[in-house]
Amino acid sequence: MIKLNTNMGVISIELDFDKAPNTAANFQQYVEDGFYDGKIFHRVIDGFMIQGGGFDVDMNESQTRPSIENEADNGLKNSVGTLAMARTNDPHSASSQFFINVA
Questions:
Q1: pLDDT digits over 46-98, tens only?
Q2: Is the backbone of residue 55 left (phi > 0), alpha (psi -120 to 50) or beta?
Q3: By C-alpha distance, which of 97, 87, 34 is closest to 61?
Q4: Between 49 and which of 23, 64, 71, 99 could a Cys-Cys bridge form, CB atoms 3.0 to 4.6 Å apart?
């Protein structure tokens, strides 16, 4: 279990290595590297999601590792409380940014 400490409390994150092994390993590696330390939730859409993992408090973007392959065809859904990797229109563009579904 990963514990994400924020100024609003702790968010507990459980990764699904069975259904999304590359995505889970990618996120875990960023955590172990301390990459998310000092990062902010830079995008918040009320009633939809909160997004973080890309910028610090001064909106400086950090260098990331290469993007990972999309594993969306695995039965997992973007339901309330789940975490997913953010990406551009390219389905294989996820790197460090993630979002938490709040609705």
A1: 999 999 999 999 999 999 999 999 999 999 999 999 999 999 999 999 999 99
A2: beta
A3: 97
A4: 99
Q: Which two tokens stand for residue 8?
A: 């609003």
- pLDDT-based confidence at residue 36 (cuts at 50, 70, 90): very high
Claim: this prediction has a pTM higher than 0.90: yes
Q: How many residues does the chain have?
A: 103
Round to whole Å and give the CA distance between 26 and 28: 6
How far is Cα 24 from Cα 67, in angstroms, rounded to an integer? 13
Nearest to 42 by CA among 3, 96, 78: 96
* Residue 65 token pair: 């590792």
First to last CA, the chain: 22
32 burial via Cβ count (<10 Å: 0-12, 13-18, 19+)? exposed
What domains, with CATH codes, occur in the chain? 2-101 (2.40.100.10)
